[in-house]
């Protein structure tokens, strides 16, 4: 319907969608249809391609789509040189290369950033790895490597007619070849980066408009955060976060939220609350404490923690402590095996390996399908199978015993807690969004990098009213290099609000308006303390007159100050 506003300007009312527009409506393209979903929201069906979209198709959109489809048809996937690399017109010759000539059919080239890459003309593919130094074990019989349209490597098992992103050669396949920033081969790192970018696209495309304000006090951070998060609808927790800490000045452009995630995770995952416990004396990865049931509201707290961890993942923030690898595997709905026990209980793992590798019948040991465990100082007995206390372990049934023991070890007293955690998590981030990640990638997404590379930090830093040659800047980097890794993380937290780094290191630090490199700015007098602006990853460093003075002031600022500066 066309109507006129008070100024006499025509506008158009769409009674189907209950919206208005200044633009005169145009009919849908041939083969398109508008429908309403269960909530009354309009969406559009393209019967030509059997696809749907929330966006109303326009003439410009159809033209762009047609151009894109032509581009895709004329662009075979294996021409990865055009997708990831920028070939030079001057190929490098291997005559002076100390590694000798390349294998037959290979060519070395250099992109505009002077990075060498290699072309295999037989398969028409490219890679960063030098084929003279990179060797992999052969695939098992019946397996094949293929690539997605985005260039991500996956594996085809023709025996079972299935596919997977996991290398069937197992961890041993990672033991050879050049490694990337995270200790894995470079091609795996690039696959992870692609998967991470797809996850971030999912988050951004499902991000509701507006913001949500969370009011907390520093003295009661855990309980305040619990009350605030549990009273809000899950969809609200996807909105842009504004964290308000009572009694502290600060506008949250991201820095306060980073510290809030870090500090709250430190509290909620603290074993002193009896919700989580360390895996063992030598493994500080966290797992659910079976004794957590002593808190009558423990399931509500685990649902809260699930929401909170999902919020950190959704908003791209990091948490203080990480979980055990088996915990991440359970989040990903992956089966647990005897090998997972080694990470949480090495002694018990060795016992099960002994059972697996020896003839139990010849040893004549009294071992039954039961497990003794301690809970709150009391020894309990659990039957691994019905009537297990009367079923003796033999060489014939020991495989069943090991599988039952493994399942029991990781589910003992924590089934309801894990379900509550996953229910809360799934409300914010559907678990299907994580289906292409493995457990180590999930840990990396939540916890960031553990070791701080000072060279990488310095390389990706900028300066205001200082330069690289300024005495104070030279002293600062000398100070950082003399710190142990823990103190470096404290310094990083002082400046950015978190001691964790994005997966790309310092090059991918985020600020108020997107990527924001670490900055040192000359501010104030030598009697002043350093000051941080966590929203902008900036350190205000006064012009100290000696290295000793800089060390004293920085140490005091890192150890004694807490709060936020407002810019």
TrEMBL record:
Keywords: Repeat, Transferase, Ubl conjugation pathway. GO terms for biological process: proteasome-mediated ubiquitin-dependent protein catabolic process; protein ubiquitination. GO terms for molecular function: ubiquitin protein ligase activity. One of its GO terms (cellular component) is cytoplasm. Residues 233-567 form the HECT domain. Transmembrane segments: none annotated. The active site is at 535 (glycyl thioester intermediate). It catalyses: S-ubiquitinyl-[E2 ubiquitin-conjugating enzyme]-L-cysteine + [acceptor protein]-L-lysine = [E2 ubiquitin-conjugating enzyme]-L-cysteine + N(6)-ubiquitinyl-[acceptor protein]-L-lysine. InterPro entries: E3_ubiq-protein_ligase, HECT_dom, Hect_E3_ubiquitin_ligase, WW_dom, WW_dom_sf. It comes from the Eukaryota. PANTHER family: E3 UBIQUITIN-PROTEIN LIGASE SU(DX) (PTHR11254:SF429), HECT DOMAIN UBIQUITIN-PROTEIN LIGASE (PTHR11254). This is HECT-type E3 ubiquitin transferase. It comes from Helobdella robusta (Californian leech).
